[in-house]
Amino acid sequence: MNRVIVAIGGTGQMVLHYYTQLFLVGMVRQPFRALVFDTDDFSPSLQFLSDYLSDISLCFGSDGPKKVPSISLHTLKPRNKQGLVGDILVGGPLPAHEGFHHPSRLSSRRRS
């Protein structure tokens, strides 16, 4: 398995949920390994899918990890009161001044 998906926060969970459904109906054929990070609770449907895929993987024995996706859920503990996932992943708040760029803030970059 060479596809790794990193899902961050609630939006990442929903995208992963839909992507997993596409795998289950056969639209996505390649198994994947998903890592989910959030400071809040995980969606019940994603928890169910994680357990379900784990059970299916066991049915395939040692070939399970090669044939069945896996979803692992990781809770991040905030150091500050806001508990923003971005701050946790980069080790603290990022400067907000003009011209400062960081890979964790790709969506804030201007497009030419």
Summarize the structure.
The chain has 112 residues and is α/β, with parallel strands linked by helices. The chain has helices spanning 9-24, 44-59, 64-67, 85-90, and strands at 4-8, 33-38, 70-75.
Description:
With 112 residues, this protein is of the alpha/beta class. It has two domains: 4-75, no CATH class; 82-112, no CATH class. 38% of the residues lie in helices and 15% in strands. The protein is built from four helices and three strands. It has helices at 9-24, 44-59, 64-67, 85-90, and strands spanning 4-8, 33-38, 70-75. A three-stranded parallel beta sheet has the order 1-2-3. Helix 1 (9-24) links the parallel strand 1 and strand 2.
Observed structural traits:
alpha/beta, 3-stranded parallel beta sheet, 4 helices, about 40% helix, about 15% strand, disordered C terminus
Distance between the termini: 36 Å
Question: How much is the radius of gyration in Å?
Answer: 17 Å
Number of domains: 2
Gross morphology: elongated
Side by side, the strands of the main sheet go 1-2-3
Largest sheet: 3 strands, parallel
Proportion of residues in helical segments: 25-40%
Low-confidence stretches: 108-112
In what range is the share of β-strand residues?
15-25%
The assigned structural class equals: alpha/beta
Query: What is the number of strand segments?
Result: 3
Number of helices: 4
Query: Mean pLDDT across all residues, rounded?
Result: 82
Could you spell the SSE succession in H and E letters?
EHEHHEH
